[in-house]
User: Which sequence fits this backbone?
């Protein structure tokens, strides 16, 4: 049984479609969506509707900070481009789509797994897991053995031993990583819709539940199409340009 871990689509239909196709070809039978379905991109309604379809079929979904901003209004700390995208998105969504975002939980648990957008220690504070110290803080905040987060737009994997020793891996796309049972793990799949690690390909991860393995994936997609949609929507051009740069 394989579960696709998908996060930070950011209204990028082209990237999300490519990832769903790839995950299906890889044998995904379950899906977990880790937030930020909207913001930056030009297809928020389409992305929300696809996630809603998966949730209706049993998939898990949690709220991200951009989802919350679209529901509640952009906060004062949001950057100008992000704020513009949030306000534009609010004007595009139907009431039932906004209602779906508003009712998303901050986190979900399943067996020994925790699914959350930002972190386990303060899900609604939206603090980033930037490195080992934040990862350890997050792992200390939960009894779950596996934690899956979004928010950081870069693939990351951290672990914590029973003796308190922390470590991290630099994931290599397509290479399965055994999730040893004597450790806690925190995985960040990276962003589908707006990667920021210098690689413009969409990022997601696949959890093999039967074999206790995690595989990170990168999926090329039609970046030009996504960028053109952003430009046509009248959103800031920088939001289109950064897709090509993976930043």
Assistant:
């Amino acid at each position: 049984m394989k579960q696709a871990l998908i996060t930070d689509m950011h209204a990028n239909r082209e990237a999300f479609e490519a990832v769903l196709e790839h995950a299906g070809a890889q044998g995904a039978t379950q899906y977990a969506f880790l937030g930020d379905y909207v913001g930056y991109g030009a297809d928020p309604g389409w992305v929300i509707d696809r996630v809603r379809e998966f949730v209706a079929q049993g998939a898990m979904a949690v709220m991200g900070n951009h989802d919350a901003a679209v529901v509640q209004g952009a906060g004062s700390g949001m950057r100008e481009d992000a704020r513009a995208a949030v306000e534009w998105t609010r004007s595009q969504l139907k009431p039932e789509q906004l209602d779906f975002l508003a009712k998303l939980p901050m986190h979900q648990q399943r067996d020994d797994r925790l699914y959350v957008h930002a972190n386990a220690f303060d899900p609604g504070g939206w603090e980033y897991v930037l490195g080992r110290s934040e990862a350890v803080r997050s792992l200390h905040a939960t009894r779950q053995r596996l934690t899956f987060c979004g928010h950081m737009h870069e693939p990351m994997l951290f672990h914590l031993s029973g003796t308190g020793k922390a470590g991290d891996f630099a994931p290599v796309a397509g290479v399965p990583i055994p999730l040893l049972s004597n450790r806690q793990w925190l995985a960040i799949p990276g962003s589908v819709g707006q990667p920021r690690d210098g690689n413009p390909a969409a990022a997601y991860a696949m959890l093999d539940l039967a074999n206790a393995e995690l595989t990170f994936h990168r999926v090329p997609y039609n970046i030009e199409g996504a960028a053109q949609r952003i430009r046509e929507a009248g959103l800031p051009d920088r939001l289109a340009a950064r897709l090509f740069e993976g930043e």
Remarks:
- The CA atoms of residues 207 and 214 lie 5 Å apart.
- Residues 2-245 form a domain with the Purple Acid Phosphatase; chain A, domain 2 fold (CATH 3.60.21.10).
- The longest helix spans residues 13-25.
